[in-house]
Amino acid sequence: MAEGFNTEDMLDMYLFENGQLLEQLQETVLEQKDADCFDEDSINEIFRTMHTIKGSSGIMMFDNITAVSHKLEDVFYFLRESHPDNVPHLELVDHVLEVEDFISSEMEKIRNGEAVDGDASRIIADLDKFLTKIKSGVDAGGAQAPPENVHEEPKQFYIAPVASSASRFYKIYITFLPETEMANVRAYKIVYALKEIAEDLLYSPEDILSDEKISEVILQEGFRVLLQAQSTEEEIRDLIGTGYYIKAVDVFECKAEEFLQGFDFGEAGAQIDLESSVEEIDARTQAGEAVETVEVKKAEQKKIAPGDFVIQSKEPGKQKKLAKDKPKGGKESFISVNISKMDQLMELIGELVISESVVLQSPDLKVPGLYLDNFNKAAAQLSKISTDLQNVIMSMRMVPLTNTFQKMNRIVFDVSRKLGKDIEFEMIGENTEVDKNIIEHISDPLMHIVRNAVDHGIETNEERAESGKPNKGKVTLSARTEAGKVWISVEDNGKGLDRAKILAKAKKQGLLEDGKPEDAYSDKEVYQFITLPGFSTNEQVTEYSGRGVGMDVVVQNLQAVGGALEIESKLGFGSTMSMKIPLTLAIIDGIVMETGTSSFVMETGVIKQFIRVKEEMMIHEPNGDEYIMIRGECYPVIRLGKWYGLTEYRESVEDGVMLILEVDDKRICLLVDRLIGEQEIVVKPIPSYIKKVKGLSGCTQLGDGSIALILDAGGLVE
Amino acid sequence: MEETSELMRQADSRSDSNEQDSQNGKYMTFKSGNEYFGLEIQYVSEIIQFQTITAIPETEDYIKGLINLRGKVIPVVDVRLRFKQDPFEYNDRTCIIVINVKSMIVGLIVEKIAEVVEIREENILPPPTIGRDKVAHNKYVYGIGKVGDSVKLLLDPDKLLNDEDLSIVEKANEMNIDED
Question: Under CATH, what is the fold of the domain B2-179?
């Protein structure tokens, strides 16, 4: 490989792209793990993914990754070509996941700057065995075995021309999207892929690796390849692949004479006339293969007009449109941004909002006799934009839990397979958005809880049969926001926690308080014992859990982000572990209200009703407690103004608004002065300098830049 | 207002320059009650005009509440109340000194900002251990700086913010929570 090439960038790109590919791969595989076999699309996708990884790893000279991905590619090549019916699907899933794990772990090593030394020989041998197995299955079934996958590792850098009557000649013209980085490496990837089938290969520009500036040339003029091979056009297209950076690939078959002329083919209009050919190719992929060759030939005949060379750069607008039209398979695309830049942006937007309100409320505008219609219109537009802007920035930090949940899916699958348990996994509310920082903190605890549920919670198949439970165990992972917290629960329908066993163990370890009878402990208190360090009722230590380190670490991790763990369980019916995490910076829907001169916000979800009440509905106790009868039900009343000792609040209940709040089946009434409206609010923590106030869970910035306190219904109820 | 903005510029240029040398020995002084106090300039990040404060219930009286500093929520402390002096009325000339102590950002409401002065080390005396009514101040006043004929009480911002009595109470609270 050429010296002086920026390998660091290449490596970053390699890791980033392949990481994404692998994630995507895992998702596809897990989506279909319960099906009987992979569908056509997934087989193609896995094949392509492996192919891409093989190609890029080959360039980076990570031989073991190349070898493994090549093997798996072979397997899927076979699947794709001959559609065998009797593939043991789970075994295949295992193999794919194993390869994925191997590559991920190797990539981790690369990331940490360690040597890539993982031994792939066992996986390769397994895959070989698997491949032979499914192949023999096909043979026995009488179906025709497809030709061997002809891809072979290139033995030499340049393959000399081999004259062969079966050889075909192609001109290949590849254009990249204008924003593609390091187009030269992309081009090299293609060359590298094509070498596998090439009998002869020429490409232009030639010096693609040693000269970094060549990227520009490739981007502007496209990348041209002359190829002599025995493959069909389709095969070539597959090899080149359709990465998102490739705008268009044109493959034209040509005669040997043309081929020998090399790149001086001014007459080959179709190759240069990008505009029409790209369109035709787009149309062709949709129209199907039948018409394909005819169309290309037509195009070739039609377009033989010299002087078409320049079209490409003259119509950039058209090209852009074409590029956009290219479907991206519905996948969202992402860029990674430095968090500090996001923070900076957020600060600036805050400043913008404040200066906006300064302008709009400027005393100069209050001069009588001013005609402000146009100003007001413009101002309204400005406010709208800045509000939208603010919302977007705030939401940028929020990440859905989908990825984290997907990982759990994988864990359940792995562990249950190894333990021979039949377990169904369900995810609910994986789209719940949580601040990125929090996701990082909960990933490990969640993994532990899920493992526990599968390992200890769910019984073995035999035990389940004995106790007359349905055969399949079930683990449900759910997320929701409630009362200003994110709740992530792992629920299993396994054996549940054994109160007596836990108590006995606690007694043995001397954790029980002296003189407190055992039945004085509530279930919740008992279950909390398992979160203490060194406490595990499981006698056996398994590979996955049971070492007694674990639940205490989970609780510690949660406490680090101000969260807590709640355990509910019913012996014989399963348990539910709920992580309760505060929503710092999370966005919630809130109702803004005022009492006295202060603004408060309360999460919409806990408010059941707004109601105006009459003085005669109130019940006053001598000790100052107040209750209210609403439609025959009695609720305790909190007057927000009195509760916080505010000034200038409305004394009479008839002037204010009652909110009926419901938290954990408890209902109370809260009296506030007036409601302002509903809006999406971003929860910010109250600075740590101020000690915790009961009933306040954070603060938020309202549209006009002022600060409102967020009421924590849970705290008020207590 | 001009004098304030002049001071702001002074403070800004100081904190921007990032050169410890040029900041050494410089103090931002302000008036509270009858005394002048000094804060080492390296702690001062900016001076802002008085803005609306969102009060927080159930806190010490000297913690006036929260303000929005360009999207960042920071608590503000009334220095006069902190020094157990009589409260004073805020007006639009009242300023808030934003200080940054151990990455904790807090605003100090002060009666009147005086000037930035340079006090050499030899002009700083330890606070008198026996004073008339200064006993209450001594924990956050770590020295007395002489500038010409006048005297500035030099403040330890860390101690100014963290009330020792308070932190004991807090610790006790935390322990109670743990036991729950």
Answer: OB fold (Dihydrolipoamide Acetyltransferase, E2P) (2.40.50)
